[in-house]
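Dig into what follows:

_____
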Amino acid sequence: MVQETSRLDAARTGPYAPGVGRGPALDFDPHQHRASLCALIREVEALVLEQTNPEQPLSAAAMHRILRRHPRQGRGLYSHSELIAGYRAFAPSEGFVLGEAGFIARLQMRPVRTQSGVTPVTVLTKPFPCPGQCVFCPNDVRMPKSYLSVEPGCQRAEANGFDPYLQTYQRLSAFHAIGHPTDKVELIVLGGTFSFYPESYQVWFIKRCFDALNDFGAGRDGRALAESQRLSVHEQRVRLHGRDLAPGYNRVVTRFLRADAEHAVGEDLLRSFEHASFAALHEAQRENETARTRNVGLVLETRPDHIDEAEVICLRRLGCTKVQIGYQSLSDEILSLNKRGHDLAATRRATRLLRQAGFKILAHMMPNLLGATPQSDIAELARVFDALHVRWRYEPHTFVLRRDRRGHVTEAFTPDFYLPDLDYYVECTVARRRLTRVKRRKVAEARRLYGIMVEILYRADFETLARRWALRRLAAALDRSRP
């Protein structure tokens, strides 16, 4: 087996053109397309007003027909973000019928992303040596440990050179361009064991994220400096032979960081500018308290064996509000077989300390680890639910959807799982989404008739889980279930 890390041809974006606004199509000037954009916007408004329910978003098919009638200078179609940019540019002079919020609501494809009122912004730290030796962890040397370069968030991070300012600013720009609110943001910092990075890098990384939040809200653009500091890991090419993996992730990443001309020669593997003081961070956080783009939550991830009193204090000083922590298993035997590096006692101690300090906790559990069985995984999940006081039941309810003239049941729906404390149902399927029309119709009908909360886990969700964590037995089961 030979694996070669390939060069990622991620799209790079340059500085904004004057007067364009804040959007991902940074070279797009709506004034050059005024006639087409105004015609499109007025057609959208007319169609909305013709609907029996004007509050309902336009269907993808209806929107596509409108876009095809007004192609972009005869080549291609306008994107939703370009339509929104045109509305913002011409609304004052054109007097459109719909307000900005109403127009955007009819175009949004995934309003659920920010339906809570808080916009999630995910950023990744740079690749860095990891203290763990977990047998299940992927070893993509272009990514922080445990992450894969095929994931969308990882591709965005690599495209921005893992720079915290660029990642935060560009993600906010993308959300703004497609009409999502950016006034309240939850910042999610991923990248393996955040606690293992040097403290000065941790402080610098969080400060630069806050700098981007403050600048974006104030209309400032500091990306020129950040562009000069980006880390070009996609230029790294490494051949890994299955029979000889001796170099390992840590050695390959360390060699790359030391070869980078900007990195210091010391043991911390940091570049000269990747340092900041807590005083500078706290100043940026104080500015953010009154900024137009405010941070309302900071999520960091770490391992149980890296949580002690000193680390809890450090997390609090960084401004962390939620901790993602990898339990992975509640069995000492399975933790040992998978070379996790800590035992169940460390998990309990870390959880106790985090709870005492008032942190929200997002615990990660992994099924199908080396040494585990379906029965042991179910038992562990039950232990987690019991510890969190979350009860669950298997197929406890059947919802009647249709009856014949005599009152006999002709169609019913029985969700797989029910969480009684959350009043929430979960339905699972290994069929692909395009083959689940009947199941999706049943779910929609049950929601309409009974007002229940129910979601479907599709085959793609299970495939992502199997690929993400190399779950071979799950992957084999999915292969056997293919039509």
Summary: The CA atoms of residues 18 and 262 lie 32 Å apart.
